[in-house]
UniProtKB/TrEMBL annotation:
Lineage: Bacteria, Pseudomonadati, Bacteroidota, Flavobacteriia, Flavobacteriales
Positions of the Aminotransferase class V domain: 45-349
Name of the protein in its database record: Aminotransferase class V-fold PLP-dependent enzyme
Coiled-coil spans in chain: 272-299
Keywords, sorted A to Z: Aminotransferase, Coiled coil, Pyridoxal phosphate, Transferase
């Protein structure tokens, strides 16, 4: 277990249960960033001449990690940039299906455009609600978070795959920001058409980097008009009709995208299967103890499958009490959000439970 915590100095100071807000910066990513900027300081344009080579390596690492060919991987600074660029490429007007009270960067972006929008409820029957809404509303695209940011309700990946078989013409657009890096994931066999993710949370890659994965059949439905010099440069662009280049106009940041590659390499060296096993163990134990203390909303308690994000009952006084004890959480919705990553331990869960009981006594 100590090996899983190595290289994360924050863990020496705090009980950090807040990856759902911000992941940690690993020492290896910090070291890469120092080396990169030293190279830029000493080499200037000589380093930038290697931009294509560097970004090709990032693209190939992302593709290998998530099961997507590198010629269908676009590198973007964050989810919102990628999603808004995607929406501008969809022919309008369109019928859209969203999840009610999903992450604002999804819903606000769709609602601010000229779409006919309908919603599915997020509760213990989430999958049934989505299937019913698709049959009733017949949308052109369905945009959603795989994991809900407030309470951690997680969509079943096999459900999405089966759903796509029932609705092959609907474009499925997923936000993977609260999901990618928590379990083994094969994009090409997921049923998702487009997955967009920021990587500063569960992938611990820092800010300013993200990616988009495209299903090979979805490209004709996306007519993105953005273009810049870098749109035509790179190994996977010109021969692919410049599709992914439309999401990468201008000069790209090799510091931030290189950070993403370093972070993915770190998880791969640890073993994503090992990461998934540790997270599954922690979230199962956490849910059990939270339910014993009656801290979870009914919708979360009733679901068999859940993420490692929980929203527990508590107010500002409890939040401040936990912070005073060095337990880092966040306030979301009507409660306190706690989240467990692979570097967390059952001992840290025990520290949280102890303070929750102490506060209530």
């Amino acid at each position: 277990m100590d090996n899983l915590r190595k290289g994360f100095p924050v863990l020496e100071q705090y009980t950090y249960l807040n990856t759902a807000t911000s992941g940690l910066l690993p020492e290896k990513v910090w070291e890469f960033r120092q080396d990169h900027d030293l190279d830029f300081l000493l080499q200037a344009s000589l380093l930038k001449e290697r931009q294509g080579e560097i970004l090709t390596g990032v693209r190939e690492t992302v593709g290998s990690f998530f099961g997507c060919a590198p010629n269908r991987v676009a590198l973007v600074p964050n989810f919102s940039y990628g999603f808004n660029t995607l929406l501008e490429g969809l022919e309008k007007p369109k019928k859209a299906l969203l999840l009610k009270n999903d992450y604002p960067s999804i819903n606000w972006a769709v609602e601010s455009r000229n779409y006919d929008v309908s919603y599915a409820e997020i509760d213990e029957h989430l999958e049934e609600n989505i299937a019913e809404a698709l049959r009733k509303e017949e949308p052109d695209f369905f945009a959603f978070s795989i994991v809900q940011y407030i309470n951690g309700i997680k969509l079943n990946i096999n459900f999405l795959k089966n759903l796509k078989e029932e609705f092959p013409e609907v474009v499925f657009v997923a936000d993977g920001t609260q999901y990618c890096g928590t379990e083994v994931f094969d994009f090409d066999h997921s049923g998702i058409d487009v997955l967009i993710s920021s990587t500063y949370k569960w992938l611990n890659a820092g800010y300013g980097n993200g990616f988009i994965l495209f299903n090979k059949n979805v490209q004709p439905k996306i007519l993105t008009k953005a273009i810049g010099f870098n749109s035509l440069q790179g190994k996977y662009k010109a021969q692919e009709g410049n599709f992914i280049g439309k999401f990468e106009p201008g000069h790209q940041d090799t510091l931030n995208y290189g950070s993403l590659k370093t972070a993915l390499d770190l998880i791969s060296s640890t073993g994503l299967e090992k990461v998934e096993t540790q997270i599954n163990s922690l979230k199962a134990r956490a849910k059990e103890q939270f339910m014993e203390l009656e801290l979870l909303e009914d919708a979360v308690a009733a679901r068999k499958e859940h993420s490692s994000i929980f929203n527990i009952k508590g107010d500002d006084k409890l939040y401040r009490h936990l912070r005073s004890r060095g337990i880092i959480t966040s306030q979301r919705g009507n409660g306190i959000r706690v989240s467990f990553h692979y570097f967390n331990t059952e001992e840290e869960l025990g520290i949280l439970i102890k303070e929750l009981k102490k506060f209530r006594s």
